[in-house]
Amino acid sequence: MPAENGQFAKYLSVTARDVRWQIYCTTVGYDKVPPGSTYPLDPGAHPPKYLFNWEMGRIYDEYALVYITRGSGLFKTDGNRIFPVTPGSLLMLFPEVWHWYSPDQETGWDEYWVGFKGEYPRALVDNGFFSPDNPVMPIGLHDSILEIYQEVFDCARSEAPGHQQILGSLIGHLLAHVSSLNQQFGPDSANERLVEKAKFLLADNVATHLDIGRLSRSLGLGYSRFRQLFKKYTGLSPYQFFLDLKIGRAKELLLQRQYSVKEIAYMLSFDDPYYFSHLFKKKTGLPPSEWH
């Protein structure tokens, strides 16, 4: 997930028309909590209704999906039930249900969240697709989940006309994807899980200089074996896959019309904007200045 810094939060206004859409967004954001940090990082960045004594927990009046991609911690809910939280855990918060969660001091964690309300999510819960009895879903690390969060963040930042309806549709997509992953009881092969984790890590570091050799070693493989395995399941080498992710993110940033080509090149860790422009044209057929 490309994150230009370690923290982002936005709280959205809602109209009567948005409510009639039956699913609407209240808040989005992410926090990258370093080891040893106080949690939450910056309580002053959040409106009063979202603040509480962290030791005592809180009760929301809305739903939220919180995706943990790094680090570990604990989640507690009604009846003092305790769930371990590990990378790939999806926490679902429910209206009027007490909850508490926090990363371990030793690890911190990275969290991505979206809060929402409406008749549609309530119907999903009423029909048994999601339940307060199962608030922590170990769905695993998936770049496809991160892509949806990124679309949500981009849409929330722009607040273009009709943005709440687009956000509602994206949240519906996210809920469907989470439900599907949560139903996949049979684990994939070890190799497929490893490649899926590698794809996630590449997507999560798309805005950085990433040493793919170091990445392969972190997964317990030499580079040659890792490259062979990755290409078998994706059709691309890890490096080409990583470049395609960067170009894909560049397209999204160009469409926002907020940054120059040079700024986008540096945001995606290209040292040479001319190389970035050459690569973009090679991959898309158009120079970035003409992408629209």
In short:
The protein is of the alpha+beta class. It has 10 helices and 10 strands.
pLDDT < 50 runs, ≥5 residues:
none
**Helix/sheet category:** alpha+beta
Share of β-strand residues = 15-25%
> Quick one: CATH superfamily of the largest domain?
Regulatory protein AraC
The main pleated sheet reads as: 6 strands, antiparallel
Which topology of the largest domain does CATH recognise?
Answer: Jelly Rolls
Spatial sequence of strands, sheet with the most strands: 1-2-9-4-7-10
Q: In CATH's first tier, which class of the largest domain applies?
A: Mainly Beta
Q: Could you give the distance between the termini? A: 23 Å
- How would the global form be characterised? globular
How many strands in all?
10
Global mean pLDDT: 89
Helicity level: 40-55%
Rounded to the nearest angstrom, the radius of gyration is: 20 Å
Question: What kind of oligomer do you see?
Answer: single chain
The count of domains is 2
Q: What is the CATH architecture descriptor of the largest domain?
A: Sandwich
Total count of helical runs of at least 4 residues: 10
What is the H/E string?
A: EHEEEEEEEEHEHHHHHHHH
Write the layout of secondary structure elements.
Elements: E1 7-11, H1 16-20, E2 24-33, E3 58-59, E4 63-71, E5 73-77, E6 81-85, E7 89-93, E8 98-103, E9 109-117, H2 119-126, E10 136-138, H3 143-158, H4 163-183, H5 190-204, H6 212-218, H7 223-234, H8 238-256, H9 261-267, H10 273-284
Antiparallel strand pairs: 1-2, 2-9, 3-8, 4-7, 4-9, 5-6, 5-8, 7-10
